[in-house]
Amino acid sequence: MKLTIFAAGLVALGVTAAIAQSDVVAQRQGLMKEMGAQTRPIGAMMRGQEPFDLAKVQASLKVLADNPVKFVALFPENSKDAPKTEALPAVWANKAKFDSYGTKMSQDAQTAMASIKDEASFKTEMPKVLQNCGTCHNEFRKKSS
């Protein structure tokens, strides 16, 4: 009887750990999707395909300032081997560097929020924020084929 209860407890613990891992992956994917959705209109404004809209820019920068800080906290050691993730093992091998990229992205977005007042300042400051995306993806995300 005790063995059955012990075995059931182990199974429940394993299921709970698997759910926790998938929730972390889903949370970080949700934050990344939100950031991607915010960068699309920004990119269109940068290319002149949409008119400059300061309110949209500021709203996007708020997300780009907030999400990286939340995002880097969603890589616990037990999520390293989680399914359906594009995170490379380098995230956990170089966690301090990965975390610093999140901090830099957040700080650059906050600086841009304070600096961008018109289209000219937008076109000067926004590339500094967006280059953080490529830098981090190149080092810590699987390349899609």
UniProtKB/TrEMBL annotation:
PROSITE patterns (alphabetical): CYTCII
GO CC, alphabetical: periplasmic space
Keyword annotations of the record: Electron transport, Heme, Iron, Metal-binding, Signal, Transport
UniProt keyword Signal present: yes
Spans traversing the lipid bilayer: none
Pfam family, one: Cytochrom_C_2
GO MF annotations, alphabetized: electron transfer activity; heme binding; iron ion binding
Signal sequence, start to end: 1-20
SUPFAM superfamilies: Cytochromes
Name this protein carries in UniProt: Cytochrome c556
Organism: Microvirga lotononidis
Modification note: Binds 1 heme group per subunit.
GO biological process terms held by the UniProt record: electron transport chain
Binding-site residues, heme c: C133, C136, H137
